[in-house]
């Protein structure tokens, strides 16, 4: 039987590699869209300064450069995704340890995959559908606090929706219902929670009409792809790391 420390270390290692590969995906698929959005933002700022007159133009030129250059931001991308992956891997391992006995499967690998799928839906997919991320040049700085709070509320509600679906499905199983009925009851509870949350939470749309829709959705899909890569690799990697055959190999190595 593995100890909690062993499960935690495996989660941290898997999270590190998942974060690095997710960062690679973000770099390849998303950086060009960020550069395009920054170029639009700078062009709009220059046009605004020109319209305001020469004084505004001089003040615009006198603005300080960003504390971190774009090259530094690109390098920091891998550091950020790696640290995020490590933290998420540790949290995932803790969650797996606490919930393993409640997951109705004899396979640790299937349990890890199911937990990763539930986490992806609740933490990534549900918030994304309500409040998809925006690139630079989109968003009002005065609403950052509001947007942060509503996003976190959506994340919590996403996890509650997953829990509600599982709880409703297990509740219906007490009556000896067919599998498809349990699936329908669980799916209905999940959708009801999500739809109610979407209707109650405020709508936030700060995308300028002049911003290219194609660029906007390419950035959003790249962001979703980065999260999908991270959770997919985390689930598959952790499932492989705790597979019984892996434990058998570990025991043979220790015995040798």
TrEMBL record:
* One family name in Pfam for this protein: CbtA
**What UniProt keywords apply to this chain's record, in alphabetical order?**
Membrane, Transmembrane, Transmembrane helix
Name it: CbtA family protein
Which residue spans traverse the membrane?
7-28, 75-98, 110-129, 149-168, 180-201, 221-241
What species was this sequence derived from?
A: Kribbella koreensis
Family matches, as InterPro entries:
CbtA_put
Keyword Transmembrane helix tagged: yes
